């Protein structure tokens, strides 16, 4: 049975972790290194580092900050923001990240996914999609969710897998930061056209939200920022809750103290 992953997300702007609602109204949360250390010691399965302003500002990812975060965690680290070419993949992986998430860069140059998969392997290549419902369908947005690309989300997800992405992070702009639950219809729609694991992102507010999202076929991980940063949901408690409901998760058992049998 495949273990489901719980992933906190660090959205970085001006060197700080921030959080907004539907990609707007960003507010300061914490120092990225402080939060990374906290999650590393509190049963997170992976950690995501997103430099959310890099693509919009036309610059590379914050390399030095990424390196500091990578040095203080022992769990797998995914990083993205401003990824436009293989040289950006090189920089991110050299910093200690295990996976590279690419969004706007792949929309500009879809073949980047193929070139990256050929060089680093599909397991290192993650397609991140910012998606919003438009009419009766779902469309992909770029530049931090500001620009409607006109691309159909299901077609883009299918093409991303064909080009070599080994995983898809599916960010719902409509539910981002609202904490009313994941966008289950969108996740189900995309899950129906791809076979690679989907990381569900946007909308988590309760432990029940995670239990519900893991019922969607193809969802291999639940990602959240606000619910974890605010400690509304604590990852150790969430994992116990999920296991009690039959969701396979990795739980670190506490070490017995000295003198205990």
Describe the structure.
The structure is a single chain. The protein has 11 helices and 12 strands. It is α/β, with parallel strands linked by helices. Residues 255-261 have low confidence and may be disordered. It has a single domain, classed as TIM Barrel (Alpha-Beta Barrel), CATH 3.20.20.70. 33% of the residues lie in helices and 28% in strands. The longest helix is centred in the middle third of the chain and has 11 residues, at 153-163. It is globular, with a radius of gyration of 17 Å. The protein has an 8-stranded parallel beta barrel, surrounded by 5 helices.
Describe the protein's topology:
Elements: E1 5-13, E2 16-21, E3 24-30, H1 32-40, E4 47-51, H2 54-57, H3 63-71, E5 77-80, H4 86-94, E6 99-102, H5 104-108, H6 111-120, E7 125-134, E8 137-142, E9 147-152, H7 153-163, E10 167-172, H8 184-191, E11 198-201, H9 207-213, E12 219-224, H10 226-229, H11 235-244
Parallel strand pairs: 1-4, 1-12, 4-5, 5-6, 6-7, 7-10, 10-11, 11-12
Antiparallel strand pairs: 1-2, 2-3, 7-8, 8-9
Task: Compute the average pLDDT.
Answer: 92
Question: What characterizes the major β-sheet?
Answer: 8 strands, parallel, barrel
Helix fraction, binned, reads: 25-40%
Give the domain tally: 1
Strand order in space, largest sheet: 1-4-5-6-7-10-11-12
Q: Total helix count?
A: 11
CA-based gyration radius:
17 Å
Helix and strand content put the structural class at alpha/beta
What is the CATH H-level superfamily?
Aldolase class I
Q: Give the class-level CATH name.
A: Alpha Beta
Strand portion, in percent?
A: 25-35%
Unreliable parts: 255-261
Assign the CATH topology: TIM Barrel
């Amino acid at each position: 049975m495949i273990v489901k992953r719980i992933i906190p997300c660090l959205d970085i702007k001006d060197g700080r972790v921030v959080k907004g609602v539907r990609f707007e109204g960003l507010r300061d949360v914490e120092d990225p290194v402080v939060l990374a250390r906290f999650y590393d010691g509190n049963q997170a399965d992976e950690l995501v580092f997103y430099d959310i302003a890099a693509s919009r500002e036309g610059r590379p990812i914050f390399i030095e900050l990424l390196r500091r975060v990578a040095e203080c965690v022992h769990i797998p680290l995914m990083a993205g923001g401003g990824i436009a070419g293989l040289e950006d993949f090189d920089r991110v992986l050299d910093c200690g990240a295990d996976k590279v998430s690419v969004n706007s860069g792949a929309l500009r140059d879809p073949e980047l996914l193929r070139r990256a998969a050929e060089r680093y392997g599909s397991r290192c290549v993650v397609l991140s999609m910012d998606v919003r419902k438009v009419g009766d369908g779902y469309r992909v947005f770029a530049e931090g969710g500001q620009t409607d690309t006109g691309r159909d989300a299901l077609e883009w997800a299918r093409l991303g897998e064909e080009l070599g992405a080994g995983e898809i992070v599916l960010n719902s702009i409509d539910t981002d930061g609202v904490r009313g639950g994941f966008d289950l219809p969108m996740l189900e729609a995309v899950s129906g056209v791809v076979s690679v694991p989907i990381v569900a992102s946007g909308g988590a507010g309760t432990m029940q939200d995670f239990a519900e999202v893991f019922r969607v076929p193809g969802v291999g991980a639940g990602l959240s920022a606000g619910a974890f940063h605010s400690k509304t949901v604590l990852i150790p408690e969430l994992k116990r809750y999920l296991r009690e409901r039959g969701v396979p998760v990795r739980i670190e058992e506490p070490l017995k103290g000295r003198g205990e049998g």
